[in-house]
Structures are given as C-alpha cells and as structure tokens.
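Protein in question quoted in full.
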Amino acid sequence: MSHNLKILLMYKMRWSVITNYFSRFLLILLALVFFAPGGTISAQAVEDITITGKVADASSEEALPGVNVILKEPIRVQ
C-alpha cells in the first residue's frame, strides 16, 4: 500500500463515506444470497419473529421471484 493511499484512508475518508461503502457491500451481499441461482438460505428456529413495516405476500411471485419461502410457524406482523 502506497504512502499516499494510507494518508488518503486516514485523513480524507469521512465516517459517512465508510458507512456508505459498507451499506453498498451489505446490499450486494444480500442480492447475491437471495438471487444467486440455486442458492439456499437456511435459518435456525426462532421463538418469535417480528416484522415491522410493509410486508409483501410471501406466496406471491412478485415478492421475491425465484425464492421459495417456507414457514413452519406463522410470523406475527405488527
């Protein structure tokens, strides 16, 4: 790593820039997990899952195309 790049990383990068890149990385990671061909998502059993906000119908194809949602127990929506 060059000296100029170290100075740039230490002094010029503000916190908002770092969080912006981090949020982009998380969005790309989520897109790869959800929309990768043949990808699977496994989750452990959870006692109570609460989802706030607007929730699409899990059975509709428009919600997440190509992703099958299987719920063992109903999810409480607030």
User: Anything to note?
Assistant: DSSP finds two helices and two strands in the chain. The longest strand covers residues 50-51. The beta strands are 50-51, 76-77. The chain has one domain: 3-77.
